[in-house]
Predict the 3D structure of the following.
Amino acid sequence: MIMDNYDQVSLRGAEEILNQIKKKPDSVLGLATGGTPIGLYEKLVQSYQSGNVDFSSVTTFNLDEYIGLPAEHPQSYSYFMWNHLFSKVNIQKRNVHILPGVFNNEQEMITRFEKKLIDCGGIDIQLLGIGTNGHIGFNEPSDHLTVGTHIVELAYETVTSNSRFFNRIDDVPTKAITMGMGSIMNAKKIILLANGKSKAEAINKTIEGKVSTDFPASFLQLHPNVQIIVDRDAASFLVEKGANRISV
Ligand code: PGA
């Protein structure tokens, strides 16, 4: 879906999530962080404040977290989620699942997270952003992809790109924990948002490129229910004008 601007991308993405919660009040949402979904979270908060949505039965799982940052660190993804969404709506704390950046037993923590995901019946709708290098979650380009939750070494491109949120590039964690490609691909529905010229090449490769571990987002071509919502800038490198393309 090609929208006019970022605000429209955020609105369209938020509508997908709101419709999902309306249809199934105990929906399981897979959530993302980064600059892209901030507008969508603002729309969800506005909708909640207007009395149009109830999060009390909603469960959430977040895609990823930086290794070494405790939940209260201002650049942790846990902090991000509470700051932009959870503290502003009526979600129940026990229904929020975010991988910890600091832990004692890696295997135990991963097993617990994945068991919760299975016990909840899987993700109804997974929200994604995309890295300029094609990562989704923190599944970075590689000669192989990992199915389950795992720890990754962040790509240099990711560290430089995310350094805009930190005082110095040296402060950016170099490792993260992420849901794997299998967990993402198991979501019943996926919505990926992107805006701006810097994402144009990535969106072209996601939709029109070869399916390759060199570009993890290309695997979304194999998922039966994906919506990619972009602004005109992010759509500007698309070549094919397929029947599935909706310009709004
Ligand atoms: P961004 O990050 O939304 O800050 O561009 C997206 C991503 O790296 O997945």
Observations:
- The longest strand covers residues 189-194.
- The pocket of 2-phosphoglycolic acid is lined by residues 34-36, 129-131, 135 (CB under 6 Å).
